[in-house]
Amino acid sequence: SDLVESEFGYHIIRLTDIKAPKARSFEDMKAQLEADLKKQQAQRKFAEVADAITNGVYEQPDSLKPVAERLKLDIQTANNITRTPAAGA
Q1: Quick check: pTM over 0.85?
Q2: What is residue 84's DSSP assignment?
Q3: Is residue 12 within a helix (H) or strand (E), and if so which, with residue range?
Q4: Whole-number pLDDT of residue 34
Q5: How much is the CA Rg of the chain, to the nearest whole Å?
Q6: In the chain, how many domains are there?
Q7: Which domain holds residue 53?
Q8: Integer Cα distance of 15 and 26 in angstroms
Q9: Strand-strand pairing, 3-6 and 9-12
């Protein structure tokens, strides 16, 4: 090339090789594409369910039963957990 000036000084640039990009076939990409699609679908479904739970709990803060019934979920109860903080917490 001609002389090229940059902030680091003057340079001569020489192209030594051109390599064409290797195109991958659909068959090579199929498994990765399927995995990506399934991941996107799972993330979308998770966001939808999380929004439904959040909205349902906001609308009826005293019970999880309506949300659980609407989403066909089982309510599981944990012992020793209360709505009020423990003394000294």
Answers
A1: no
A2: S
A3: strand 9-12
A4: 97
A5: 29
A6: 1
A7: 46-73
A8: 32
A9: antiparallel
Q: Which amino acid would we find at residue 14?
A: R
When the pLDDT of each residue in the chain is averaged and rounded to a whole number, the result is 91
Instruction: Name the 3-class secondary structure at 3.
Output: strand
Residue 3 lies in a domain: no
Is pLDDT at 88 greater than 80 in this prediction?
A: no
- Residue 5's H or E segment, with its range, is strand 3-6
7 backbone dihedrals φ, ψ, rounded to 5°? -65, -15
Token pair 């640039």 is at which residue? 13
* DSSP line for 48-82: HHHHHHHHHHHH-TT-SHHHHHHHT------TT--
User: pLDDT > 90: what percent of the chain?
Assistant: 67
The pair of structure tokens assigned to 34 is 């399927």
